[in-house]
Amino acid sequence: MALKSSSTAKAVRVLVADSSRIHTQLLSEALKRDAALDVISWNSEPTTLLDTVQSHAVDILAISSALDGQPTYGLELLRQVRTASPEIKSVVLLDSQKPEIILDAFRSGARGVFSRDGSVEMFCKCIRSLHQGQVWAGSRETSLVLEALASTPQLRAVSANGLEILSKREMDVVRCLVQGLTNREIADRMGLSQHTVKNYLFRVFDKLGVSSRVELLFMTLSQGASQEDATPQSKQLTNGNNPEESTLSPFQKAAEAGVPSAQMALAQAYLARRTHPDDVVQAYMWYLVATARAKQAKQLLTKTMTTSQIDQAEQQATAWLARLQKISPVS
Questions:
Q1: What pLDDT digit, counting tens, does each position of 87-139 carry?
Q2: Are 118 and 84 in a shared domain?
Q3: pTM for this entry
Q4: Same domain, 54 and 134
Q5: Is residue 260, in this structure, part of any structural domain at all?
Q6: Are 79 and 127 members of one domain?
């Protein structure tokens, strides 16, 4: 007997991707008894999951942490869905109660986790709650997440899409900032109030995961800003055309403030210049500082990663280093 819902409410479109074809079918059939849910059919082929989710405008994805015989393959697919369609909410069906699986589920973009000990009626409630913008987790899962947040140092991560996620107006503000203009000068050039310029900068900082103008400056360099957008100073520094002290000054301040990208940029700039006897010493000194900070970042990152994620990253890094060695071997 179908559970009754409001006749005017739009059905929630749900796709189930359970650990096996038969489990997917059984759970899908169970959910169809709830008239508030529109369950989308799926052929249980992992390679078609993303296309199916997108082509059917799915609202909620219920996915097992284990798929295709692999204990965490479902989480890998969830990350792909999250990247391609961040508006889709998801709940992970837990095939293990291990803390790392629960944490990885949320790190992968899940809005909730559901134990297989729960009832179908409770799972329907979970789906409706997610659709309403809520998070679904039991007291144990919530405690694990809070403990992980409390014990993990804050790491600001830049969006994978880089500057491309900014609007045209926000990008105009960034161009002005990279040229060294103050908020007042940006406001005058763009015909805005200083308050509006500040609001634009706050939105840019939030989107890109940076916290200061200096971090934003170095992000534009590391993201490979186009030559027409780059300032003469940034072109000179990144191209290694013997930058003068006046060009290095803002990078020196940022490096001394602890910005790793500025420290590495200074090392490269001094090495490229080498017009003073102390340049090579300065280059090596800033290289040592930058690599030490990178080592610290590595230690922090590995605390938040699973063993399989670390192995995957190391394999990819080894492949990249081998490729770079062929392109530009170190003499």
A1: 899 999 998 888 888 988 998 889 999 998 899 999 999 999 999 999 999 88
A2: yes
A3: 0.47
A4: yes
A5: yes
A6: yes
